[in-house]
UniProtKB/TrEMBL annotation:
Record lineage: Bacteria, Thermotogati, Deinococcota, Deinococci, Deinococcales
Protein source organism: Deinococcus lacus
Pfam families: 3HCDH, 3HCDH_N, ECH_1
Biological pathway: Lipid metabolism; fatty acid beta-oxidation
Keyword tags: Fatty acid metabolism, Lipid degradation, Lipid metabolism, NAD, Oxidoreductase
UniProt name for this protein: 3-hydroxyacyl-CoA dehydrogenase NAD-binding domain-containing protein
Amino acid sequence: MQANPYLPIRKVAVIGAGVMGAAIAAHLTNAGIPVRLLDIVLPDQKDRNFLAKAGIEKALKARPAAFMSRKNAALITPGNLEDNLGDIKDCDWVIEAVLEKLEVKQDLWAKVEKVAKKTAIISSNSSGIPMQMQLEGRSDDFKARFIGAHFFNPPRYLHLLELIPTPATKPEVVEALSEFGRTALGKGIVVANDVPGFVANRIGVYGIVRAMRHMDEAGLTPAQVDALTGPVAGRAKSATFRTADLSGLDIISHVAADLNKYSGDDEDFTLPQYFQDMVGKGILGDKSGSGFFKKTKDEKGKTQILGLDLKSGEYTGEGKAKSKLAESIKGKPLAERLEALYTAEGPEGDFMRASLNDGFWYAAKMAGYVSGSLADIDNAMKWGFGWEVGPFETMDILGVQRVIAEIEKSGMTLPPLLQSMKDSGAERFYESSAITTPSGEKAEYQAPYLILTDLKKDGAKVIKKKAGASIVDIGDGVLLVEWHAKMNALGEDQLRMVQEAHKQVQALGYAGLVVANQGENFSAGANLPQILSMAQDDDWDELDEVVKEFQKTTTSLRYSPHPCVVAPHNLALGGGCEFTLYGDVAVAGAELYMGLVEVGVGLIPGGGGTAEMLTRFTDQLQGNQPLLPAVQRAFELIGTAKVSTSAQEARELGLLRDSDHIVMNANLRIEEAKRQVLALAPSYVQPQMRTDIPVMGEDAVAAVKSAVYGMRQAGYVTDYDMVVTEQLARVLSGGVGRNRGQTVSTQHLLDLEREAFLTLAGKKGTQQRIQHMLTTGKPLRN
């Protein structure tokens, strides 16, 4: 097979250091890619690189964070288009993120063509201007390497990358960016047709415009609409108007204007007058500090969300609103929530039904035009706008024939796709042999990565199942333990299935084990209600056994006779963190919020976390270096409940090792974890528990007490924090009666952990903290 001439991509130039360009540059550095960031020269600035440097600073200050580690900013070299355009000559990819004006882009490409190397991919991040229009005057060679590569804001967090080839774009360019985007940048790739708005913005902006119209008709406010169109409807937390603020009202205005210019007569993208007035006044959303919503601080310094009164133009306290309809269905399965929203009476129901029907109608109308694939349209809305299910998947849930009847009842003419569905009588787009898209494609959904639910459709792949966990054969001689409880809290089901999986690996001759899942989070930690109940009932022998069992299970991932790989993602807290720590290898999703947070509920890590972090940090000491830095580092990590904001930061904190793997695309974790098991298996030797861990003894307790006392005097810790950290210090010391330099075993540290855990669980202050966390979801500062 011939190598792709446009790979590998080792260095990238980003032209345009505004909010989007700087954020794209930041995300490239998250993948370890050096970036040349260029912008124009401001005549009134002495620093000719002022705009590029300002872009980097804004990216460093961005919230949510654009960089996975602040250290990544060092990979960006700022410059300007007058002095440094020639520096792009060694870049493998040149990305444009300048003003959404056709003439500006055309002028830039004329300059870029003179200096970019002949194997460089050239792309535009335009959110609406067709790619073909930007190529006027360019050579055939340039056109062959040119493609739209449209990121969504913020690029680090939104999964979608739309690739928009022109008729002249070489297939190798599409293949190269698809591969690089999917693996290096962690993106979900949708190949869109070169039409105004492409896929996600074409359908998403239409939905926003129509939602605004229906809001006015129903007499609702932006906050009320967001309460209905957010998570309760299977949509992103940013819902409708908060999404507009995040995207930038000016961007939406530009896209809507372009779509009005190029779309058909029945596709009205005219934004309400109040929206146009806001843009005219520079009220552009988050980038300008205010939009439909505005963050402020009240007299006590507490963050307050204000909402814009569209009639008065003033910000009021109506930044958040509760919906009776939304509250009544919160927590129910998505299908039930969608059914309730679609059939509800009153203004809220009228709004939801009208908005959903408009979205269904338009998605069906765009099928075959923006993309020949229904799955690509669904994925674009899921990955670009944060929907749980796309428009065609939603119609499948509600019943296609009912949706068609509702659309006809509203007076809209059915587009060809819906007419063909009506004629066939089919209730679902997917899994329906009768239905093809307008381009003739069979309407089947095939994910571009392994999905556990698909594997489990074949009952033979499920080795064993309980309510909270399953053992699944993922092929090639590898078993996987999947947790599927609420927040993947760790209780009896989860522990038993890991233990059972070890037995199955040995009994059936499997190569090894993966612990992973495709839920929202890897695990939010141990089963707190169970711990609280046992402590309040004085079931100390039973709680002791529970903690022993937890330790036995976490440590089994390291001390079993076969390789065990753990693949965490999103939340990996408390016990979820401890399971990750003990894997032979961790294959972590790049977005990883990992930490030992037990002190927040008045406990210390009792599943091996304290023992592992002390051992890990002690092992990293050089030569005869004193033990105190290792103890201090473990104490700071655990005692302050530090949580990483990314997998990179988890590595910096020591929660991930250099030998662990970070996967930018979390959907590829399980496949990579499987590869790691298969790589380890042929020469795997069962590790033995350590017996040579040096400890400081009582000196460690004294050092920690001194530090905590200072923190208490400064008001950083509470009285009960001191009680908890004293127990933590005793474990980190190696136990009472130990002297500096003595060695202990892993099992000894585990026993100390368990003793400290049980001691704290019996205290009123800890039980108050656990109860408060269970009731409010927030830590108690007692």
